[in-house]
Amino acid sequence: MREGLIYKALSGFYYVDSEGESFQCRARGVFRKKGISPLVGDEVIFQIENETDGYITELKPRRNELKRPPVANIDQVLVVMSAKEPEFSKNLIDKFLVIVESYDIEPCLIVTKKDLLNAAQTAAIESQLSDYEAIGYRTYFVSNLEDQSALADILVDGINVLSGQSGVGKSSLINAVKPDSQLETGIISSALNRGKHTTRHVELIQVNGKYLADTPGFSALDIAHIDKYILKNCFPEFVAREDQCRYRECLHVNEPSCAVKAAVESGEVMQSRYDNYLQLMNEIETRKVRY
C-alpha cells in the first residue's frame, strides 16, 4: 500500500502522485456502493497492481471540498476577474467571495487585463481593490500578457484553485506561470460578454512545489447551500462588527441599533458590498424550497 495525492481525474481514471511517481488508478467498487467519488486533491491510500497502475482503496478525511469545480483539500481560491472584456463587476466579485467564504477557504482576488485600461481606468480599479484590501483580502492587478509570473508568488503551500468568470484569462495565467502546460485559451464572445468554455477537466499543476488547479470556467454561481445566517458570516467586515449590534442574531437588514448599517452610513463598510449583501439575502429568502 502507498499514499499519494490525486492530481487529475479523467474518464474514470484517477492519476495519483506518490513521492514524485505517477500512477493511473481506478477506484474500488466500495466507493460506488457508499456513494463516494474520489476528487482531485484527495489524499488517498492505493494498492499498486504493476509499475504504473493501481487501485484506490481508501480516502483520507477531507478538510474541505467544492462541487463545482470538484476539488478537495483546498488551501486558497484565487478569484480571477477581468478589468475589461468582460467588464469589471464588484457584484460578481462579492458573489464569488461569498461562495469561497462559505466553505471556509481563504480567497485571494486577482484582476487581469490591466494593459487594456488607460491611466484613469487603472486608478479607478486600484482604488476599488484597496477597499477590498482594507477588509483583509489580498489583491493583485496584472496585465493580460505580462507580469503574470507574479502568480508564482501569490500561490500558498498546498492546493490553490483558480476560479472566476469565463474569459478572464485563467488559462492564460497558467500558461504564463508554467508555459509547458499549453492550456487552450478561448475567444471572448462579445454577444454574451463571456468566454467560451475551454477547460475540459480539473488537473493540479505543480508550480515551485505548490499545486495549482485549472478549473472549468463558469458564470453561473450556485448559492443553494447558503442560508441567511451563513451569508452574514461570509462578509468579514460584518463579522468584525456584529458584537456591537443590539441583537445577537442581527441580520443587518431591518434591525435597530445595527453596527453594520451604521458602518455603511459612516463609510467604514463599502456601500456596494452592503447592497450586494441585501441582493443575495433577497435571493436566498425568495428561492423555492427544493424537495
From TrEMBL:
Keywords: Cytoplasm, GTP-binding, Hydrolase, Metal-binding, Nucleotide-binding, Ribosome biogenesis, RNA-binding, rRNA-binding, Zinc
Record-listed Zn(2+) binding positions: C245, C250, H252, C258
UniProt domain EngC GTPase: residue ranges: 72-219
Record-linked SUPFAM superfamilies: Nucleic acid-binding proteins (SSF50249), P-loop containing nucleoside triphosphate hydrolases (SSF52540)
InterPro entries per record: G_CP_dom (IPR030378), NA-bd_OB-fold (IPR012340), P-loop_NTPase (IPR027417), Ribosome_biogen_GTPase_RsgA (IPR004881), RsgA_GTPase_dom (IPR010914), RsgA_N (IPR031944)
Cofactor(s) in the UniProt record: Zn(2+)
Localization of this protein: Cytoplasm
Pfam families from the UniProt entry: RsgA_GTPase (PF03193), RsgA_N (PF16745)
Location of the CP-type G domain: 63-221
Cofactor binding description: Binds 1 zinc ion per subunit.
EC assignment: 3.6.1.-
Residues making up the signal peptide according to the UniProt record: none
Binding site for GTP: T112, K113, K114, D115, G164, Q165, S166, G167, V168, G169, K170, S171, S172
Family: Belongs to the TRAFAC class YlqF/YawG GTPase family. RsgA subfamily.
Function noted in UniProt: One of several proteins that assist in the late maturation steps of the functional core of the 30S ribosomal subunit. Helps release RbfA from mature subunits. May play a role in the assembly of ribosomal proteins into the subunit. Circularly permuted GTPase that catalyzes slow GTP hydrolysis, GTPase activity is stimulated by the 30S ribosomal subunit.
Subunit structure comment from the entry: Monomer. Associates with 30S ribosomal subunit, binds 16S rRNA.
PANTHER family the record matches: SMALL RIBOSOMAL SUBUNIT BIOGENESIS GTPASE RSGA (PTHR32120), SMALL RIBOSOMAL SUBUNIT BIOGENESIS GTPASE RSGA 1, MITOCHONDRIAL-RELATED (PTHR32120:SF11)
Protein name: Small ribosomal subunit biogenesis GTPase RsgA
Organism: Macrococcus equipercicus
Lineage: Bacteria, Bacillati, Bacillota, Bacilli, Bacillales
Gene that encodes it: rsgA
